[in-house]
Structure formats: C-alpha cells, structure tokens
Design a protein that fits this description.
two-stranded antiparallel ribbon, MnhB, globular, cell membrane, single chain, membrane
Length: 262
C-alpha cells in the first residue's frame, strides 16, 4: 500500500514539475505599462519609484501592522504572562528576576548545528546586501530585514541558548523604535523639502543626499528608508520569535515545578 502511494505521489510531482517547466519555456510576458515608463522618461529611477515613491505609504502601513503583531505577541506571551506574581512564588524567584532574558532551552544535534551556522551567516549577509542594494535592485528594507531575522531565528532554533547570533530583547526594542522613528522623520524631511510626506529629494543645496556614482545619484533618501525599514522589520520579527521561544522556557519551568510539588 505504501509503495503504491509513493508511486502515485512521485508521478504527481513529475507531472506537476513538467507542467511548470513547459509553462516557463512557452511564457510570453506582457510588458504592460512598462512600455509607457520606458518610452517616456517619467521618473529618474524606476526601482526607487516603485519601491518607495509609489509605495511609501504602503510600506508605512506594513510596518504599523508589524508593530501591532509584535504588541499582541508581547501581550499574549510577554509581560502579562511572565511577570505574574504566582510564577515567582512557584519558582521562588526574586522580584528582580526577568524571565524574558532566560536562555535555558535545549539545542539540536551537531549535524543540524553544522548546517544551521553557515546558513544563518549567509542569510544575514544576503539580508544586509538586499537592504543596502534596495535602491538599485528589486530588494529593499522589508525583504532584507526579514532575511536577517530568519537567520537569527534559524540560529536560535538550532543552537538554543548557546546561539552565536543573539540579540537581547532590550536591544531589539531600541532597534525597532529607531527604525520606526527614522522612517517617520525621513517622511517629515520629505515634506519640508518637497511639500509631500515621504517625498524623495536627491539634493540639499546642490549636495547629493546619498553619496553614489553619477549614474545613480537619483536614489535620494531611498537607501536611508531601506535601512530604517530593515531595522524595523529585523527587530519586529526577531522580537516575536524571541517572545515565542521564551514562552517555551516558562512552560517548561511550570511543568518542572508542578512535578516537584507532586
């Protein structure tokens, strides 16, 4: 029975993969409005325009959604759970003990750690590259920040409390606040320079805002927006993962205490 099922699954995957390859080989992409943009020099930098000139408010909304998600995680798994007095009574912990910083959960096998360590480094490096090159490539701060946070989370999963990539929760709080505040302030600067919130200005008194080769001086404040968004997303996703992992620590401590009481 198992062999027949495996055969059916293998045939299904083969048909599905062959269909995708056939579709890609015969694909004809409709250029759409791209012809208009290329025939008429509307904006100096199309990548920057698409990422932030036309989607800056969308990115701002996404960041606010992430803030709300982290706040909900904090309420459910954070201080409202860890600072309850009954926990400290059960564990006989002093009032100054901060359960959020406890790092006492286990790790995985050496094989998992051997693979996870270089993968985490590569993910962080790729995330940094995506953030810094977001004004000339289809990348950006949100994607790069998510990649860096993924490297951090992968390292936490593989190494547990001995993770080589570790951010203190207070450091993550400051980083997230810095990213959100930086994005808002850059938007205000665009309002003063161009009359519109998040307006992308390229020069101040003839001095380029972002030092770059002459061919890409049109980046303006886009690289800075990418950096602060990357910090915001990195800190937000890492904080959520941090809270979820610390919840595991508390549950384990409660279970052990109940076993001792029995």
């Amino acid at each position: 029975m198992s062999s027949k099922r495996d055969l059916v699954v293998a045939i299904s995957f083969f048909i599905f993969g062959a269909s995708i390859l056939y579709s890609l080989a015969n694909m004809h992409v409709n250029p759409g409005v791209n012809i208009v943009y290329l025939n008429h020099y509307i904006v100096p930098n199309y990548v920057c325009a698409i990422i932030f000139d036309w989607r800056a408010y969308d990115t701002l909304g996404e960041c606010l959604v992430l803030v709300v998600a982290v706040m909900v995680s904090w309420i459910v798994f954070g201080k409202s759970l860890y600072d309850n007095s009954y926990l400290k009574e059960v564990f006989h912990a002093p009032e100054s003990d901060d359960y959020i910083t406890l790092q006492r959960w286990g790790d995985y096998t050496p094989i998992i750690k051997f693979l996870a360590y270089p993968m985490s480094i590569l993910m962080v490096a790729l995330g940094i590259l995506t953030v810094l090159g977001g004004h000339i490539t289809p990348g950006g701060g949100f994607q790069g920040g998510a990649l860096i946070a993924s490297g951090f989370i992968l390292s936490i999963i593989a190494f547990g409390s001995k993770s080589p990539l570790w951010f203190d929760h207070k450091f993550l709080e400051r980083m997230e606040a810095l990213g959100a505040l930086g994005y808002l302030l850059l938007g205000v600067a665009g309002m003063f320079m161009g009359g519109y919130y998040l307006f992308n200005f390229t020069q101040i008194n003839g001095i380029p805002v972002f030092p770059a080769p002459k061919d890409i001086i049109t980046a303006g404040i886009i690289p800075y927006l990418n950096i602060v968004v990357g910090l915001k997303v990195l800190a937000g996703l890492s904080t959520a993962a941090f809270l979820l992992s610390c919840e595991k620590v508390i549950i384990e401590k409660i279970s052990k205490s109940e076993e001792k009481l029995e």
